[in-house]
Design goal:
The complex is a heterodimer of chains A (99) and B (236). By secondary structure, chain A is mainly alpha-helical. Helix content of chain A is 73%, strand content 0%. Chain A has four helices and no strands. Chain A is extended and about 55 Å long. Chain B folds into two domains: 3-167, no CATH class; 183-236, no CATH class. Chain B has 13 helices and no strands. The relative contact order of chain B is 0.16. Chain B has helices spanning 3-15, 17-36, 41-51, 54-65, 70-81, 83-92, 101-107, 113-122, 128-152, 158-164, 167-182, 184-203, 209-227. With 236 residues, chain B is mainly α. Classes of the chains: A mainly alpha (99), B mainly alpha (236). The interface between A and B is large, with 75 and 99 residues.
């Protein structure tokens, strides 16, 4: 299948999700369940995407684990996104000389 | 163009510089990942330009690489990006009168986690030109980084590019850990999602990656909503 069609589907679905409520919705959601569900969705998605995929992200489980540990510690101390992600990569790079 | 409009735009550009830097490095990792998954530099660049989102793009490339169906792609994008609908709802409550329908349809393109966070915290009343400024500088970083990662990724030594494969995941960790520390409900949801994701990967390998993420996330978010319903205003 053409990659352009995949990209078009991605772009259209993503745009509609952003545009429909932003442009047309004028009321507030009342259902506590739906509000709670939507609140948790991003965290659930990011967690499911990250684990276990991150352990294979560098092609070497040991450097991936070292990078993951670095990211967890720095994120725990609330460091900015860019610092956490680059430190994880740097750790994976440096431990690559050992493992 | 009067001065007021121009200064709104410039203020948005300036406030968006940290997003530019963050996007530049993260999308560099995306560019490498996309090209190593078999996409061309141009295709990776077009994905970034038309989608402007990290998690959705990463999973979208995984669906393409695995030869998934278009239905799977649409469902994956819908579930991963549904949070933007919430952000759009939230932003729609504080728009300036200048935000007519054409402006809303245009600015909707730029609703991302970071742009939403900036626009909803920096401004009491959100004007179109401020949001456009933030979007322009952010999109520039996101597309440029993707291009550089895709193009130069092949020039870099293999040990550098493989190490950069962790960049996007590092950012995801940086997003989910701080709120997990503050709210045990979020920690619970993150834990349940990770558990089901691991179960899918090792015990139910016939479920494709994209659907495994969706199934795990929906189960975790439903459990979260049932066990820890949000109090009003808590998620503002």
């Amino acid at each position: 299948m053409s990659i352009a069609i995949y990209i078009a589907v991605m772009a259209v679905v993503t745009y509609l999700i952003r545009a429909l409520p932003f442009a047309f919705f004028r009321k507030k959601i009342k259902s506590k369940f739906i509000k709670s569900f939507l609140y948790y969705v991003p965290y659930a998605v990011l967690s499911a995407m990250t684990i276990p995929a991150i352990f294979y992200s560098t092609g070497n489980i040991y450097t991936s684990l070292a990078g993951t540990a670095t990211a967890l510690v720095l994120a725990y101390f609330n460091l900015p996104l860019i610092v956490v992600s680059l430190a994880a990569a740097l750790t994976a790079f440096l431990t690559g000389f050992i493992f | 163009m009067d001065k007021k409009i121009k200064s709104d735009f410039l203020r948005g550009l300036f406030d968006g510089i940290p997003i530019f830097l963050g996007y530049l490095s993260v999308s560099f990792g995306f560019g490498i990942m996309a090209v190593s998954s078999g996409l061309s530099v141009f295709e990776a660049f077009m994905i970034s330009l038309t989608n402007l989102t990290s998690a959705g793009q990463a999973q979208g490339v995984a669906v393409i690489a695995a030869g998934g169906t278009l239905i799977e792609m649409a469902v994956v994008q819908f579930v991963i990006n549904i949070r933007y609908a919430l952000m759009g709802l939230s932003l729609s409550q504080k728009l300036d009168g200048k935000f007519t329908l054409p402006h809303r349809l245009l600015a909707a393109y730029g609703i991302t986690d970071e742009i939403f966070a900036l626009c909803s915290t920096k401004e009491d009343i959100l004007r179109p030109n401020y949001m456009y400024g933030v979007i322009v500088v952010s999109t520039f970083g996101w597309a440029l980084g993707t291009f550089l990662g895709g193009a130069a990724g092949t020039l870099l030594p293999a040990n550098v590019t493989s190490a950069l494969g962790i960049v996007l995941y590092g950012m995801f960790i940086a997003i989910i850990v701080p709120p997990s520390r503050k709210q045990k409900s979020v920690l619970f949801v993150v834990g349940v999602a990770a558990l089901f994701s691991v179960i899918c990967k090792y015990l139910l390998p016939f479920i494709s990656g994209g659907f495994a993420v969706i199934i795990s996330a929906i189960i975790a978010a439903v459990f979260g909503a049932l066990i820890f319903p949000q109090k009003d205003g808590e998620n503002e």
